[in-house]
Specification:
- The longest helix has 10 residues.
- Helix content is 8%, strand content 1%.
- It has three helices and two strands, in the order H-H-E-E-H.
- It has a two-stranded antiparallel sheet with strand order 1-2.
- The chain is largely without helices or strands and 298 residues long.
């Protein structure tokens, strides 16, 4: 995969406020503590919040922790690794290194995880609107039920992760590795997977309307019963991909690689003939013969 050239632009973009954010005018802790913090600093901030017992691991009642907008890039997360239901809006975790951190149910809109090494992380039901996980290493992580519209996952390693029943509308996964992951019944409407490795990913029942799979590795992907209206598969490798029960209306399969006619026979819609490469046609009966409209008798 070629190098992703828009890193700085995408990082800046993910930090922008959106006009319809209901909390756009709410202050964040980073307004009062703009400096880079260490563990002792974080503990003092939590103690000042009067939220109950605070230890080296953070607050006992994690749902009361407000670390929004703080720069935690120099914090050690060996002990302080539970942020369930905490306020982490705009918090900077760039470059941190620790496995098994839990952000379950946290508000982490616009949070920065650029270059973070965070395997086995729990993002279950986390708000990640416009969060930035560019080049993050987070294999075997849980994003089940996460809400992450417009989040940036470009170049991230998310192999063998769980994305089931989440919302990732307009999210960007360009050149990311999601091989072996599960994303059943999840909305990826308008999301981009350009040049991504999605081998053996399970998209069963997912909403992939308008998704971009240009040049992606889709070998063995399960699209069963997924909505793929207007999806772009140009140049993608779809060897062994399952399209049974899918809605392929207006989908583009121009120059797809390793396609077979049988992959499309059980789809809900008959794709435009011009979108299927010539090599897919069979000698016995051409694709055009199989799917042409019945002639009208005189």
């Amino acid at each position: 995969m070629h190098h992703y050239h828009l890193r700085e632009e995408q990082i800046r973009e993910s930090k922008k406020l959106v006009k319809d954010d209901p909390r756009i005018h709410e202050p964040v802790m980073g307004d009062f503590y703009p400096e880079v913090l260490n563990n002792d600093d974080v503990i003092l901030i939590l103690q000042a919040q009067d939220i109950g017992h605070v230890t080296r691991s953070g607050a006992v009642k994690t749902e009361l922790m407000n670390l929004s907008g703080l720069n935690l890039t120099q914090v050690s997360f060996l002990e302080m690794n539970n942020f369930e239901r905490s306020d982490l809006r705009y918090t900077n975790f760039e470059g941190i290194s620790q496995d098994r951190i839990s952000f379950r149910g946290a508000s982490a809109e616009y949070a920065q995880f650029v270059d973070a090494d965070i395997p086995l992380t729990n993002f279950t039901r986390t708000r990640l609107d416009s969060a930035n996980l560019y080049n993050a290493n987070a294999p075997e992580s849980k994003f089940t039920g996460a809400i992450a519209p417009r989040a940036l996952f470009a170049l991230a390693n998310l192999e063998d992760s769980k994305f089931d029943e989440g919302l990732f509308k307009l999210a960007e996964f360009n050149e990311a590795n999601l091989a072996g992951s599960s994303a059943k019944y999840t909305s990826f409407e308008g999301a981009s997977f350009r040049n991504a490795n999605l081998q053996d990913l399970d998209f069963k029942g997912a909403n992939l309307r308008g998704a971009n799979f240009v040049e992606a590795n889709l070998r063995g992907v399960n699209f069963k019963n997924a909505s793929l209206e207007g999806a772009n598969f140009e140049g993608a490798d779809i060897a062994g991909a399952n399209f049974s029960g899918t809605d392929l209306n207006q989908a583009n399969f121009f120059k797809v690689r390793n396609a077979e006619l049988k992959q499309f026979k059980s789809s809900k819609t008959r794709i435009g003939i011009n979108n299927i490469p010539d090599y897919v046609y069979t000698k016995q009966r051409s694709f055009k013969t199989r799917f042409k409209a019945p002639s009208t008798p005189y």
